[in-house]
Write a structure and sequence with these properties.
The protein is mostly beta strands. Helix content is 4%, strand content 27%.
């Protein structure tokens, strides 16, 4: 009889956590926020562009797939993973005037103090040239734009006491 193979271990990724200035935990991600790209002109807000994981499939599968075992490869995005926590999405969009037209945003607020910390764009901004908009479910539709200095890293919070109340603390 052959000895059993040891389970494969998934590569460990560092989980970075970020808080609102009111100390509420809002974000857990494997991405490092200072390394993320920022929006450029004509957006002019320099918001960080953070990818979100894909939405679960809404179509029922013919046979339910078994849960992942340690020996199976992960189904998560190998580039990174993000969870928004204790946030609420505004029910109505906000229209922002830009130099090149208008932009329809849905604001993301802290669940505790209600301060706007991020936004998402309406799916119509992701329409393809052929007119197929994918309902915002494509890669571009799963982005959140984090406002500059809206979040404070957990490490910064611990070092600075309550953390991040100054203009320089925060991302």
């Amino acid at each position: 009889m052959e000895p059993p193979l040891p389970p494969r271990r998934l590569a460990a990724q560092t989980i970075n956590t970020y808080h609102c200035h009111c100390t509420t935990l809002l974000l857990a991600t494997t991405f490092s926020l200072p390394l993320l790209p920022r929006r450029r002109a004509p957006a002019e807000d320099e918001a960080l562009i953070l990818p979100l994981p894909p939405l679960p499939s809404s179509s029922p599968s013919p046979s339910p797939s078994p849960p992942l075992s340690p020996a199976e490869p992960t189904r998560r995005d190998p580039k990174g993973y993000t969870l928004l926590l204790s946030t609420s999405l505004a029910p109505r969009p906000v229209i922002v005037r830009r130099a090149d037209g208008f932009e329809k945003r849905r604001l993301v607020r802290c669940g505790r103090c209600r301060v706007v910390v991020a936004y998402t764009l309406d799916p119509l901004h992701y329409a393809t040239p052929t007119g197929d908009d994918e309902g915002g479910k494509g890669a571009a539709g799963r982005l959140v734009y984090l406002l500059p200095r809206a979040l404070v890293g957990t490490e910064e919070m611990v070092v600075g006491g309550r953390g991040g109340a100054d203009a320089e603390g925060g991302l």
